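Hello forum,

I keep getting stuck at the same step: I have a sequence, I want structure tokens, and every attempt I make locally crashes halfway through. Rather than fight my setup again tonight, could one of you with a working pipeline run this one for me? It's a single chain of 363 residues.
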Amino acid sequence: MKANDMTPQSETELAQIIKDASGPLRIKGGGTRPIGQTTGDALSTAKLSGITLYEPGALTLVAQAGTPVEEIEKTLAAENQRLAFEPMDHRTLLGTKGTPTIGGVVAANVSGPRRIAVGACRDFMLGVRYVDGMGNIVKNGGRVMKNVTGYDLVKLMTGSYGTLGVLTEVSLKVLPAVETTATYTLTGLDDATAIKALSAALSSPFEVTGAAHDPATATTSLRLEGFKASVDYRADALSKHLEAFGTLSKAENNWAAIRDVTAFANQQGDVWRISVKPSDAAALAANLGATAVQYDWGGGLIWAQAPTGHNLRGAMGDIAGHATLIRGTGQTFHPEPAPLAAISQGLRDRFDPRGILNTGIMS
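Reply #2:
Ran it on my machine without issues. Output:
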């Protein structure tokens, strides 16, 4: 197979490449997230690009998998709309170039700080088109949230990292942009107290859309969004609600840096992404042997920087959670319990019986 055959110009050409493949294929979108120990020839979806349908009134957008996220965000902004799950841009953290694509975002279920308020990328998916491991073109879902036909392959494909099929087109629900975004901070809190403050804010009726803590600066950040009058009112009420934790002060919006974990860029060591119960987060972080940590999602997400090769999963002990190695060498994904691993392997065997799509990424 010639090198130029590995960047198909159409879904039909992609299907033929997969059908004719005699060995593993390493699926590549924009090249910004080289996560996992994949093998085989690179197969790029970069040429499958373009917004094929956008209906602002229906809050619906359909785009080919190789469409740059920047293009989608620019198109939405022109209609005062947005991707509410604010996907992370990995380039700064991983030191990659490339261009983030919507197919890569969906394949990895990439979601930012606002996930605590509106949900993950998976929750905004309406439909997908993809090519399975036998070269079959499959369509599932639709263009409205009420579509319920057959198996929900849309949710299954989102976050499957290209192991079940190669995405060619995705349908998404979008949301209106907000008039005002404001960030408020508490300072000087230790990790455990900060997470209690974040939990208090998130359990309040004041619609917090971002809740993070940076131990390096002892800064606890909260985000409010909406109409200005509403934001001002909720900020005042939230300040009173959290007065036991200190004085809530208005600060610069820094959510892109929080989302992209820019503080860990250009630093030595591995970077881990750990999902855990917020109530366990501070105790877990203290025992990880990490050189630095940051908390997002009210403490439910820990970003940890650790010495190269450090057995961070072993340091988790009996605390429930899972750790993904985002930057470093080793097993990327947390080992699954045997029953779940059997289900996952069964799905891969059904969707990709030859085992050629992103082989090894889950090991």
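The first helix runs from residue 11 to 20. If your local run keeps crashing, start a new thread with the error log.
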